[in-house]
Design a protein that fits this description.
The complex is a heterodimer of chains A (about 500) and B (about 240). Chain A has 17 helices and 14 strands. With about 500 residues, chain A is of the alpha+beta class. In chain A, the strands form five sheets. In chain A, strands 1-4-3-2 form a four-stranded mixed beta sheet, covered by helices on one side. Chain A is globular and about 65 Å long. Chain A starts with a strand and ends with a helix. The model of chain A has no long low-confidence stretch (mean pLDDT about 90). Chain B is α/β, with parallel strands linked by helices and about 240 residues long. In chain B, about 30% of the residues lie in helices and about 20% in strands. Classes of the chains: A alpha+beta (about 500), B alpha/beta (about 240).
């Protein structure tokens, strides 16, 4: 992994060079405390380079005793907005001129001047105090606000939304997130990758496989370990199973936004069938406990291959039925078409990923953009739509399900023909290492950065889940729509809170 | 559309009797024995301090257990016994009686009501998804008279998932206070029940019982929907006694 070391003053120029006017999306930007090695605080900027099928990485070095400030990059690279706020909360490095200088991760009960990811702060240091977090509102005659959350009416994750309304139309949405912030990046510090694995698996339930896979990839790349072929096939298979479970669940959940009950019921039933399949394959309904650094822990036996084929054949018919239901219901189509539009320029500027990006005509898919797992050997297409509305996001999911069913077929054949039975390669730790891993979760690309110290313990883990990249697009999508459509628009993105909050 | 409905109709009713046994590979309750020399290795392998050594025997604290299989692996590596995961669910624990709920609660208990408010106090969303699954046609929670409600003011039971985060501590306290008496709290899943999943960090308060009094603990990471149903029905029984 080659990293360009730069001064804080050169960040602008470098970002400009790497991003080429947002042609190369900003994948991640994060801080790191390297004061122990005498380097000071650093900010990493990671841009995706399609042509090289690699990341362009630069790191700006800050003198811990000097001014911890730099000129904000948000005006140049809009996708940097959240990253810069997070770095400010976690390390106290200030982006000067940032359009939204509010805190992001730490809410009111944390004191000012508490920077939890600095190494001087103990892991369990409980600091209580006060800071301000002001919601964005609108003023004017006849305008009013609708506050919602953090505890919602349904069974969903916590977040506070503040709608500024002109009658039924949403003028503005401000979302306060990071309620489930558990300090996971601090929690894994000082643990070996094996010890940290159970925590990484539990960053998020829905994206359990992709989080674990990205993490293991980063560790394996850092330590130059080659994963056995059989393990790679099983990992890819699990990843596609996870996509099937989530897409089936998501398309079954979207009709709940409009009260279309037969589709909810069918969707719920199909999801349960796939989750039971996951339990049979992995011993856990969220496919936890299979992927480990170096390979996998369980094989997929011949009986399981037969079971996977049988169950997925049924689910495939069910999904086709759901497609018919959606297509033939004019009242449903009326609700989803032209609702919650994200234009392509917005998708590109905000560096959106996954279903959200692809529904707006931005063909971003890590499975094609990077070489990992078995994907280079597999035959598949990236599904895109142009309209960027709820209907497009639904159609992308339906089409991707078909692609995933075909991919599973191909993978099962590869598995049957794979004669190597090794499941796991050994890891040997030597010296400080760092690297990154990426995988395509059901919501989009999931990026992990891991730095290991001399003893092979984690010095820094950074997680950028797909939802993190797509959340800033939700306020764009809802503006101008009516408030009863918010649940529908929100469900069409179906973003996790757990993996952005960490 | 009518063709589709016809096909759904032909599938008949999907709703099942609740089974507390999963697939062969399910990592459920830990059974079997293990040589005394290996006990400490198991305890060391456990990431959440759920494997406890008691003399020459072991005890699992199911409130904390993630069912990750590391203790079983440690025994297998050292060929030191036949410790294994059975494919049975671990039963929820009732705090007041200090006992496990039994499968009896599944029988003959129709015709009562329990209103539940879910509260995500910092979970990874796995428990929440499983809670959503309770409403699908396989589990059909409504047949037991249990319903999820939109406000804590309508609720008999607060179902807490996730380890309580600093950012949600106040929301949990306020939701509890908003509930009418008599009220119960269920800590659902290893995070809410044991609080050890992520260790101690600057952003975590701990298990749910650090903030509000808890009446029931549901083990599992996440608990399977069947275990959640047992816990909910046990809660309905507890509530009846308090009325």
């Amino acid at each position: 992994m080659s990293i360009m070391k730069i001064s804080p003053e050169a960040m602008h120029e470098t970002a400009h060079m790497f991003s080429i006017d947002n042609y190369h999306p900003l994948t991640a930007m994060f801080g790191r405390d390297e004061t122990a090695s005498g380097l000071g605080y650093t900010i990493y900027m990671v841009f995706e380079n399609f042509e090289k099928r690699d990341m362009d990485i630069a790191k700006a070095v800050f003198d811990p005793h000097g001014h911890l400030e730099y000129e904000t990059l948000t005006k140049l690279v809009p996708a940097a907005a959240w990253f810069e706020r997070e770095i400010k909360d976690m390390f106290g490095i200030i982006p000067k001129g940032h359009p939204d200088p509010r805190p992001l991760v730490l809410h009111e009960n944390f004191p000012e001047g508490f920077f939890p990811l600095r190494k001087v702060v103990r892991k369990n240091q409980q600091e209580r105090g006060k800071r301000e977090y002001k919601m964005r509102t609108s003023d004017g005659e006849g305008l009013f606000e609708v506050p919602v959350g953090p505890i919602h009416a349904g069974i969903i994750e916590p977040g506070h939304f503040r709608f500024s309304q002109a009658g039924e139309s949403m003028l503005q949405l401000d979302a306060k997130l990071f309620f489930t912030h558990r300090g996971i990046e601090k929690a894994v510090e000082g643990k070996t990758p094996d010890e940290a694995l159970h925590i990484v698996e539990r960053i998020c339930g829905a994206c359990s496989v992709s989080n674990t896979w990205s993490f293991c990839q980063a560790v394996e790349k850092a330590l130059d370990v080659k994963v056995p072929r059989r393990a790679e096939i099983i990992r890819t298979l699990l990843s596609e199973l996870e996509r099937i479970v989530n897409h089936v669940g998501d398309i079954g959940n979207m009709p709940a936004g409009v009260g279309f009950n037969p589709a909810i019921s069918l969707g719920g039933r199909l999801k349960e069938q796939t989750m039971r399949l996951c339990e049979a394959v992995a011993g856990n309904r969220f496919l936890r406990g299979v992927i480990v650094p170096g390979g996998v822990r369980q094989d997929i036996t011949h009986e399981l291959i037969v079971e996977i084929r049988e169950v997925l054949k049924k689910v495939r018919f069910g999904v086709a039925d759901m497609g018919i239901m959606f297509k033939e219901q004019d009242s449903f189509q009326n609700r989803v078409q032209t609702t919650g539009i994200v234009p392509k320029e917005v998708a590109v500027d905000l560096a959106m990923v996954g279903v959200g990006a692809r529904a707006s005509g931005f063909a971003h898919d890590s499975r094609k953009d990077f070489d990992y797992g078995m994907y280079p050997e597999l035959d598949f297409e990236v599904c895109t739509h142009k309209s960027g509305d709820v209907a497009a996001r639904l159609l992308v999911r339906l089409e991707e399900l078909e692609v995933s069913f075909k991919l599973v077929d191909q993978l099962l054949k590869l598995l049957e023909n794979c004669e190597d039975n090794t499941l796991k390669a050994d890891l040997a730790y030597n010296g400080p290492r760092e690297s990154w891993g990426i995988s395509e979760s059901p919501r989009g690309s999931n990026f992990h950065y891991v730095a290991l110290d001399n003893e092979g313990k984690i010095d820094r883990l950074f997680v950028r889940s797909a939802s993190y990249a797509n959340w800033p697009a939700v306020p764009f999508a809802v503006t101008g729509n009516i408030i009863p459509d918010f649940p529908l628009i929100n469900k069409s993105f179906e973003l996790c809170y757990a993996c952005i909050d960490r | 559309m009518f063709k589709v409905l016809e096909r759904i109709f032909k599938d008949k009713i999907a709703t099942e009797q609740i089974a507390l046994t999963g697939s062969d590979r399910l990592r459920g309750k830990i059974e079997g024995s293990c040589n005394s020399d290996c006990l400490n290795k198991c305890a060391k392998a456990c990431p959440v301090k759920a494997f406890q050594v008691e003399g020459n025997d072991y005890k699992i604290d199911y409130k904390k257990c993630l069912f990750c299989g590391k203790c079983v692996e440690a025994v297998a590596e050292n060929a030191a016994g036949d410790l294994h995961h059975s494919s049975n669910d671990v039963m929820p624990m009732l705090i007041e009686a200090g006992v496990e709920a039994t499968a009896d609660v599944l029988k003959n208990k129709l015709g009562r009501s329990l209103h539940v408010r879910h509260l995500d106090a910092g979970s990874c969303n796995a428990c929440d998804f499983e809670m959503g699954a309770l409403s699908n046609s396989y589990y059909d929670l409504h047949r037991y008279g249990v319903a999820f409600v939109a406000s804590p003011r309508h609720a008999d039971l607060l179902m807490v998932t996730g380890v309580v985060s600093r950012n949600l501590e106040q929301a949990l306290k306020m939701s509890y206070e908003a509930m009418p008496e008599p009220k119960l709290v269920m800590a659902c899943g290893a995070c809410a029940a044991g609080g050890e999943t992520y260790g101690d960090t600057y952003a975590i308060v701990g298990a749910a019982d650090k903030v509000v009094p808890v009446d029931l603990y549901v083990p599992g990471c996440p608990p399977r929907p069947s275990a959640m149903i047992v816990a909910l029905l046990a809660a309905a029984d507890m509530l009846k006694e308090q009325m």
